[in-house]
Amino acid sequence: MSRRNIASSGFICRILCSVGLLLGSVHLQCQQIATVGSITRSSEEVASTLNSLGEASLDNSQIIQGQQQLLLANILRTMSSRLAEVYASSLNRSTDSLSESEARPLKSLAGLLNNLEDLNEQTEQKSALLILKSLDIAHDVFDHVPASDKPPVVFGAAIPGVLTPQYQNSLVILGYHLTDPKANNRTPDLLLAGAALPTSSMHADFSKIVVPLSQEVARTIGIVNTACDPIRTSQLALRVYYVSGSLSALLGIVSETTINIGIKAPTPQFEFVVEETGTAKVQTTQTIPFSNQSGYVSVGCEQTATTSVAWQAPENTQVSNVHAQWQDLNNIGSQTQSVIPSGHSYVATGSIRGLGKQCVFNICNCPGGGHGILVLSGTYEVKDSGVRSFSSRQMVRGAELAQLKVPQQDTWTLDRLVVRITRRNCDSELDRLEIAPSDVSPGKDFRSAKGIFQVRIAGGAIAVKVVNANLQ
Question: Which residues pair with 444 in a beta bridge?
């Protein structure tokens, strides 16, 4: 179980002290009687926990689970607020002192809190059933609280998939008193940024408003929820018409109220594709071997011969290794060799001595003459300056900042730089930036065509940063 699950479960277990008596279960550690206030506070606290879980789910790209948790949190919070408002002067009343019609919804609410303990482990379908159950309880609470005026309330909005398998192609706004028979069941107005959305096919009743989603409407609201068109945080408003109280009903006065409805979305994720071409001034070091040798040097038995070999290093080079050695030796008793440098000249000197004579009773024999070659060899380095062309294509993912390296050269000149931004897992281009070589200067910021991201070139790196994700 994750840390968030443990925190949620432990927290809900703590509040069972206040609701356990209502359910008829025994909790030895409980010393208090359940009151309206304790259930109200427990509902608010569980709502806060669910809200945190929902935001965490959205951050992990679990869109439907996150939306379900946030909707449940809002339903609980709305019930808690209504209870706190109606029972403001009697929150310490025990539930046993309430009428049966008032106590029954509170018992149901207590049972619901218990069922929400493992919400993070529930399937989307089971969570949808819990939402529908919580809505029934919420209506029961609102129906039976001792208040004469019961104005419209919105619990939240369910995007497609939240109430699986129901309403797969609709946005469902859930609430209480959304239409009023005394106001001729006038259909509410759904607004986005102050402008009314098309409502010709919208169905509204007392507890819900079902908005069939065409592709155009879903895109306008920001709930298409695909890789190329992900769900976006949006703020809707619902204008509801109702009759408040018996006097207004008598006088035929229809009131209206506007209720804001928020739809949360995860932080948008982007992919950057950077294509760069250009030239770079480079300096390389080339290591070149050299070798020079003498001719064959021959010796007889007990004879010594000396030779030398010279080599001149080319201009603007540096000798890194030099040595002398005899090669192809045969019938040699001993040899010497050394190298003497003089400026850019190197001279190797060496000698060889033939084998000793073999003598028996003063009669000596030479086993054979010997020979060898003196070789002067080594390596030298040549510095090479020139121009190299480069071309690369890099892709990085990020929500805010991405760093890309340019070719590792001493100095480089950019001929062309194109940066494109797409949504994660979508090939469609959102925005782009093409930088002309004449505009490039260290530390200068460049803004993309639509203003979604900016680019800075500094220190041999290209930094790409999202600066206005709301323009997506």
Answer: none
Cross-strand bridge partners of residue 308? 349
Rounded CA gap, 338 and 351, in Å? Answer: 10
What tokens appear for 91 in the block? 């929150």
CA angle 402, 403, 408 (to 5 degrees): 160
Q: Sketch the domain layout of the chain as residue ranges.
A: 1-146, 148-266, 270-280+386-471, 283-384
Check the CA dihedral 395-396-398-404 and report its sign: negative
Is the CB of residue 383 less than 8 Å from the CB of residue 448?
no
Six-digit token string for 376: 């002067």
Taking the C-alpha atoms of residue 440 and residue 51, their distance in angstroms, rounded to an integer, is: 47
Alpha helices in 177-332 (DSSP H): 215-221, 245-251
Cα dist from 134 to 34, 114, 129, 244, whole Å = 20, 12, 9, 26
- Taking a C-beta distance cutoff of 8 angstroms, is the pair 58, 159 a contact? no
Q: How far is CA 375 from the centre of its chain?
A: 64
Q: What DSSP character marks residue 94? A: B
Question: Across the 472 residues of the chain, what is the mean pLDDT of every consecutive 10-residue run?
Answer: 36 41 35 79 94 91 92 96 94 92 93 79 87 96 92 95 87 96 93 79 93 88 86 91 86 92 85 74 83 92 92 91 93 93 93 87 82 94 76 62 57 72 85 77 82 78 76 56
E-assigned strands of 18-71?
A: none
Closest CA to 41 of 104, 103, 92, 100: 92
Amino acid identity for residue 422 in this structure: T
CB 414 within 8 A of CB 435: yes
Which DSSP symbol is given to 153?
A: E
Q: Does residue 378 contact residue 348 with C-beta atoms inside 8 Å?
A: no
Instruction: Report whether 222 contacts 232 (CB < 8 A).
Output: yes
Coil, helix or strand at residue 422: strand
Which residue's entry shows tokens 């997506």? 472
CB 83 within 8 A of CB 36: yes
* Residue pointed to by tokens 């509902």: 43
Closest CA to 311 of 374, 376, 373: 376
| Dihedral in degrees, nearest 10, Cα atoms 158, 161, 166, 172 | 20
For 471, phi then psi, to 5°, come to -85, 0
CA dihedral 129, 131, 134, 135 (to 10 degrees): -110
**Does domain 148-266 sit in CATH 3.30.1360?**
no
Is the C-alpha dihedral spanning 219, 220, 225, 226 positive or negative? positive
State the Cα–Cα distance between residues 62 and 68, nearest whole angstrom: 10
